[in-house]
Amino acid sequence: MELLDGNLELKEIQNLQGHTDRVWSIAWNPATAAADVPAVFASCSGDKTVRIWEASPSTRSWDCKAVLEETHTRTVRSCAWSPSGKLLATASFDATTAIWENVGGDFECVSTLEGHENEVKSVSWNASGSLLATCGRDRTVWIWEVMPGNEFECIEVLQGHTQDVKMVQWHPTMDILFSCSYDNTVKVWWSEDAEGDWSCVQTLGESSKNHLCTLSGYHDRTIFSVHWSREGIIASGAADDAIRLFVESKDGLMNGPSYQLLLKKEKAHDMDVNSVQWFPGEKRLLASGSDDGAIKIWELETLPG
Amino acid sequence: MTLGLINANPVVHAKKERVARTEDPHGDDAVDPLEIYDFVRDIRDPEHPYSLEQLSVLSEESITVDEKLGRILITFTPTIQHCSMATVIGLCLRVKLKECFPPHFKVDIKVAPGSHADEKSVNKQLNDKERVAAALENPNLRQLVDECLYSNEL
């Protein structure tokens, strides 16, 4: 892979201000990955709002196109676009998940999912966009089915974690759901068929046999976000204000992959980096959000010579 | 909220005599443990009408600072092993320090080793940024924290 041979740099392209409190999460709209479409991403914040940012074709820089406010009454912790890019789900400490639709340039809240007893911390769409998962401090994971007319029906409330569930993520192609919790485990949830009950088919902990590799000794404080790019570059953002990039080592051991540091960007932000997200299109762009309220767009470039 | 005090008879110590500090020749840039201690010593305990210093929950020795890195570590000693107010004290310390120090300072808060029955679990909660943020959005908790921080000024 030429990544390991080249001299690479993470160049700061833009510093976006706007949020008045920490930025918790960033999500690129998957429908805007094509080369001829202006790239769009959403950011959510402790200021209770969600901002939509769009790249201007003329200036090739991002502007804030919309501020989704007066809906959530507390921190918005997580946001996720549906695979079609038509809907945006936002999860909030106010115990609700809002669904937004872009109606002629304006974002409207078309549905509010209630049920969690307290803070909702993460939201994720499955690959086909037919299901939505949410999780929160009430220790549960909820699965919602997307019905016609932007209706959402809860089809399952998954119990199992013994503490706060901090994140949910669907498998990229199969309807398998992963959740990770304050109880130090990752649970794998699955349903036999469309009508079947969902259940936890596996619990991954510190000494699970599927464990392949741990990268440690790089960040010296909490790592808040990791994201894999199309080319297999892992980006991490942490409370040490740094962003690090890792790639698979060429000379990995026979019994599993190993990874090496590709580059580090110390002082990427003035405060904790809470979210790093690779642009889903061809360009090697990375968006990062921080406790300092800023969002930065970076480009991974090869240095000349 | 439990009725009745968790620890009805805390040991109260006299306030340490405050040493008048001479002008620091390096200006206001230097941050030392005593400066940090001055900000937090008078925080009122959530349960008793005494300061954290008077109850020996905090002392000057409980604070370490690495100014170059911008890191502060505070260790406090709850009055009893099963203190359920430990997380509230932690919140008070965080809010106070956030007010007094530039935002890039990172603060870690722990209970003194051996001072709490659920030490590991309490330390985890005290330093979970997401949990702290959510707790401070809870109006009841926020009110309690404000009372501990500002009751002297009322």
TrEMBL record, chain A:
Record's GO cellular component terms: cytosolic [4Fe-4S] assembly targeting complex
GO biological process: iron-sulfur cluster assembly
Name listed for the protein in its UniProt record: Probable cytosolic iron-sulfur protein assembly protein CIAO1 homolog
Source superkingdom: Eukaryota
Xref: Pfam families: WD40
CDD domains: WD40
InterPro entries for this protein: CIAO1/Cia1 (IPR028608), WD40/YVTN_repeat-like_dom_sf (IPR015943), WD40_PAC1 (IPR020472), WD40_repeat_CS (IPR019775), WD40_repeat_dom_sf (IPR036322), WD40_rpt (IPR001680)
Protein keywords: Repeat, WD repeat
Role of this protein: Essential component of the cytosolic iron-sulfur (Fe/S) protein assembly machinery. Required for the maturation of extramitochondrial Fe/S proteins.
Protein species of origin: Durio zibethinus (Durian)
Family membership: Belongs to the WD repeat CIA1 family.
WD repeat feature ranges: 16-54, 69-101, 113-146, 158-189, 266-305
From TrEMBL, chain B:
Organism domain of life: Eukaryota
Domain MIP18 family-like per the UniProt entry, residue ranges: 35-107
UniProt record, GO biological process: protein maturation
Entry protein name: Protein AE7-like 1
Family annotation (SUPFAM superfamilies): Fe-S cluster assembly (FSCA) domain-like
Membership in a protein family: Belongs to the MIP18 family.
Gene3D superfamilies hit by this protein: 6.10.250.1280, Fe-S cluster assembly (FSCA)
InterPro entries referenced in this protein's UniProt entry, alphabetically: FSCA_dom_sf, MIP18, MIP18-like
